[in-house]
Amino acid sequence: MKKVLPLFAVVAACAGGKSSERPAPAVPEGGVQVEDALHGVSYQLPPGAGGWQVANDGNARVSSGVQVEIATFPLAQKASPAACRDAARKRLAAIRQRNDEDDPQASGGAVHDIPAQADGPRDQTVGDAPTAIWLFTRGSASTPVRNRWAFYSRGSDCLLLQVAGPQGEVFADQVFESSARSLKVLPLSAERQREVDLLAGMGFLERREPAAALDRFESLTRREPGFGKAHFGALMAGFEMGTEAYARALPHGELALKSEHELTSEQRQLALRAVGVMQLAQNQVKDAAATLAELIVRAPDLAEAQYNYACALARLGDDRGAIEHLRAAIQLDGDLAAHAGSDEDLKSLRGIAAFQALLRPSSARSQ
Question: Which residues are registered as beta bridge partners of 146?
Fold first, then answer.
């Protein structure tokens, strides 16, 4: 059996924490009540000179330079405000370390969901009221910026409230106090939660965290057992984890293949490749042969598919068919000849002259 499957590449997203039961305070005259449906939060801003400009994504700014932003990111397990803060601090430290290693002069760049902070963080303050908070300064000494971050959680997702303004800007402190104390994390619609979970799982896969991705996709499949894309994500996460996760991921792959209309042609091909390998590894040889037979119809020029189908046929006792497809695989990728010689799936063919001929160097095979 040959396992050659590209990483399932994709991206992340998320949300925030438990909604407070306390009633929202009345909005002061000139203040603004922000309702952010994208992230599922609401919060209040105090009156600002010149008035607030509020975007649909929940971000706001005022003419003095104070800015309010909402960001979200996922955790592998159930989140809490403090856990979200710890994750953000670790991720930002890792980003800065990578930037320093790549370029000592680099000022940083955003990676995924946690924005990098140039020339910082410094002058840090960590607290837990009204929620987990992290205050720090960044930027040059001549134009320092004070960042005020507050963290909230919803399920396995973190929500981040960011208030930034010039160092010493008293109004920014007032904005942070008002928005952090009034912020309520609201339930997401079923459609939005599905999107959040799907993107979170894909993001974990992209960052090479397949165990976290599998947990997230499985959480989604428990809520929506018929959602083929979530089963597909769980399959790819389990495949990336390796043989120890095959038994857990294979049922998701089989369900994903039953929902053909939810998968693109490329996704179905990836699913067939992964499921075929897993079925062979789990000794479900007849099922593997059926899976791989569909794959070679869809992708006849895929050497790995021809090779693994040959393995399935050899284990089923179809020596003739196995050699035929092994020949096709080696014609597509000559390096497979060396692999075939020691492959236990093909051991039943070792006494057959045609098989031995396929193992010869390419120059000898062509004579």
Answer: 137, 165
Give the model confidence (pLDDT) of 119-135 as tens digits.
668 899 999 999 999 99
CA separation for the pair 47, 63 (Å, rounded): 12
With vertex at residue 107, the alpha carbon angle to CA 92 and CA 65, rounded to the nearest 5 degrees, is 85
DSSP conformation letters of 90-102: HHHHHHHHHHHHH
Structure tokens at 344: 């236990």
Largest CA distance in the chain: 91
Residue with tokens 């909005």: 27
Looking at per-residue pLDDT, the higher value among 318 and 118 belongs to: 318
Of 2-11, 80-89, 140-149, the range with the lowest mean pLDDT is 2-11
**Structural element, H or E, at residue 127:** strand 122-127
Structure-block tokens of residue 66: 């104070």
Integer Rg of the chain from CA:
27
What span, in angstroms and rounded, lies between the C-alpha atoms of 359 and 111? 47
Residue 311 contacts by C-beta under 8 Å, 6 or more apart in sequence?
Answer: 1, 2, 280, 322, 343, 345, 346
Q: 244-278 b/e with 16+ CB inside 10 Å = b?
A: ebbeebbebbbbbbebeebbeeebbbbbbbbbbbb
What is the edge-to-edge ordering of all strands in the sheet holding 145-154? 53-54, 60-61, 67-74, 157-166, 145-154, 132-138, 122-127
- Selection from 107, 133, 105, 104 nearest residue 120 by Cα: 107
- Looking at residue 230, its amino acid is A
DSSP string, 234-290: HHHHHHHH-GGGHHHHHHHHHHHHH-GGGS-HHHHHHHHHHHHHHHHHTT-HHHHHH
CA-CA distance, 319 to 322, in Å (whole number)? 5
DSSP 349: G
Per-residue pLDDT at 317: 96
Beta pairing class for 145-154 and 157-166: antiparallel
Structural contact between residues 133 and 149, judged by C-beta atoms closer than 8 angstroms: yes
